[in-house]
Amino acid sequence: MTVESTAARKPRRSAGSKAGTTSTERTTRTTARKSAEPELVQLLTPEGKRVKNAKNAEYAKYVAGVTPEELRGLYRDMVLTRRFDAEATALQRQGELGLWASLLGQEAAQIGSGRALRDDDYVFPTYREHGVAWCRGVDPTNLLGMFRGVNNGGWDPNGNNFHLYTIVIGSQTLHATGYAMGVAKDGADSAVIAYFGDGASSQGDVAESFTFSAVYNAPVVFFCQNNQWAISEPTEKQTRVPLYQRAQGYGFPGVRVDGNDVLACLAVTRWALDRARDGEGPTLVEAYTYRMGAHTTSDDPTKYRADEEREAWEAKDPILRLRRHLEASNHTDEGFFAELEVESEALGRRVREAVRAMPDPDRFAIFENVYADGHALVDEERAQFAAYQASFVTESDSGFAAGSGGN
Amino acid sequence: MAETVTSKNLALAKAINESLRRALETDPKVLIMGEDVGKLGGVFRVTDGLQKDFGESRVIDTPLAESGIVGTAIGLALRGYRPVVEIQFDGFVFPAYDQIVTQLAKMHARSLGKVKLPVVVRIPYGGGIGAVEHHSESPEALFAHVSGLKIVSPSNASDAYWMMQQAIQSDDPVIFFEPKRRYWDKGEVNPEAIPGPLHKARVVREGTDLTLVAYGPMVKLCQEVAAAAAEEGKNLEVLDLRSVSPMDFDAIQASVEKTRRLVVVHEAPVFFGSGAEIAARITERCFYHLEAPVLRVGGYHAPYPPARLEEEYLPGLDRVLDAVDRALAY
Ligand SMILES: Cc1ncc(C[n+]2csc(CCOP(=O)(O)OP(=O)(O)O)c2C)c(N)n1
To answer: Which keywords has UniProt assigned to this entry (chain A) (predicted)?
Structure first.
């Protein structure tokens, strides 16, 4: 189809055609690409059947040796991640968290890619990568501090090679690229993975990270979870071509994988990580998936999105799909699901209790870690703050002045 | 009283919405641009219903790219449009900071006055809503330091309505800081009134003992402080600056010559903040009138803290009263 804006060009300088004076504006309708299915790498259908075709053969190799036990492990990861996420959503509703960004529907993309990583690989997440954090061994309750409002991060990124959540859209893709450049300089064979959304793909930082990683052949995998929405804006408001095709213009491969197929996500990510380790540079993986819930707990998707859309995606649920496969292949018995249910409830309870027990930070935390080497002004303001607090407490009730407000 | 017939009681966010609607109606060159401003009506619903009534070519959902939003707004302005762009939260203006500082602010001067850039950049700013990081900051000083930009911040619904009209009509780029924690505060708006000049301060409470100067979200706090101080027999004057750049130093001077004491209150860090500029200028202008040094109350030289500590960080009633007491003690 011809692009309308070039085909129907109006004379540019005819009298009175100065912008804004008429309403005959050229309409540039984006050719929405809703027919994504044929482009997808898929190994498991929504019905749980294994897919074998020429397109996925290259990737299927990477999961050829997956054992029934590993499949059950992936299933367990997804179920527990969803349980954790549901608990966090409930805790937000109960006022225990200020906000929550749910990953509902994106479990396969996160668990598949997360389980493809080695311990020495490094992850740069957004604010929604709870499933990847799970795979890295980050205690899920650590993820909740910033959503509860008791800290602005809350874990040591080097503890599990899992960087802090990044809220400013796209920033972390450059950090990942730089980190990967460092890995390459060190001669190590670790790889780096950067997560981001379809909306983020519009940010300049993401374009710059593509440029840098290509120029320096950095061992980084760009893992874009295209969950179809950036708050209220559909992917068509970000791009006219399928996102994975962007990579081509930068000189590295891009592939679109069924983001609701955990096996395909595992395979494709392993393939991309291998390329990075082998010195072949960056790869863009677009996991084609769906955000089943709201953008965050403050969002109201009914303002912009039809219910039928979610229903269509529910039929492709990543957890259901693997369950069907496990059952059809006799890889499980009833006990497995029952035990997992118990484990899942226990996780929910643990998270709930941990959050409720999470103390408010000491007020002096404001002045902690502002600088690594200290700063005279911060010291001065801390002292003023302390004097002010002290005067306030003694004035109101000198009886329990001691111990209040910390040191 | 004919006025009461036309005036309405509106929340501050709704007042901006009605102001944008009026601008879209009266001037076909006005455009609204930003993330989620269309169907959703913005995350604070400030643009609610505008796309429905004015269409997608006037109220434009942009790709998720702030540099792109401001950069293309500059291009549209070069072509004769008057874009009003929304930055979703204060902390997300920085991808656009380059475009604002190196391009938007400077093009008029560089073109020897031939190019005008009537772009309004709307930024919901400030804390007090319990948000996660990057959603509560007050970066006005970072913009005020840049010549070529005008910076305003309304404190109430009526000003929000009228200052937005004036910002859109201005041929200069205006950074319009909206006090997000006051979005839901209601006030009278009279769409037929004749507004005062955009960059003039207003005395919102007359007093004789000390002047409190604030803008945006802190004006209401200062009014509460003055009310509390009145119970202790102190008579404070409260000045709403309304505009950070240019700043109405004449109004501050006039007030200080009367009260002889000045306390400046803002949410942004005190260090290199707008209070520093006020203190320096007023010391210069009113040296012989001042009975006490100009005091400042604001944020610390520390990152905006997590939500559960923000009440400690933000100026509150007690902290401002404490500064008032210190100034009066001289
Ligand atoms: C620079 C910047 N601009 C705006 C925002 C506000 N915001 C937070 S999430 C979001 C949408 C992101 O969509 P996408 O990248 O597709 O990721 P998703 O949240 O769907 O996973 C926006 C606009 C932000 N966090 N950072």
So the answer is: Oxidoreductase, Pyruvate, Thiamine pyrophosphate
Chain A contacts of B43, Cβ < 8 Å? 231, 298-299
Domain locations along chain A: 44-357
Q: What's the A217 CA to ligand 1 centre distance in angstroms?
A: 28
**C-alpha to C-alpha distance for B151 and B180, rounded to whole angstroms:** 16
CB pair distance less than 8 Å for B306 and A204: no
The domain boundary residue, chosen from B156, B189, B222: B189
> Which one of 3.40.50.970, 3.30.70.920, 3.40.50.700, 3.10.20.120 gives the CATH number of domain A44-357?
3.40.50.970
Q: Which residues of chain A have pLDDT under 50?
A: 1-23, 27-33, 398-407
pLDDT, residue A142, reads 96
Write down the pLDDT at residue A400: 42
Instruction: Say yes or no: B82 and B175 in one domain.
Output: yes
- Regarding whether B207 and B171 lie in a shared domain, the answer is no
A366/B313 touch (CB, cutoff 8 Å), yes or no: yes
Contacts of B29 in chain A (CB under 8 A): 20
pLDDT tens digit string along B224-276? 999 999 999 999 999 999 999 999 999 999 999 999 999 999 999 999 999 99
The CATH number that applies at residue B286 is: 3.40.50.920
* Same domain assignment for residues B147 and B207: no
Give pLDDT, residue A16. Answer: 38
Assigned domain for B36 exists: yes
Establish whether A122 is a catalytic residue.
no
For atom 7 of ligand 1, the residue with the nearest CA is A169
Quote the domain boundaries for residue B133.
9-189
pLDDT one-digit tens code per residue, B23-73: 999 999 999 999 999 999 999 999 999 999 999 999 999 999 999 999 999
- The whole model's pTM is what? 0.92
A148 reaches B (C-beta below 8 A):
yes
Residue that finishes a domain, picked among B143, B166, B189: B189
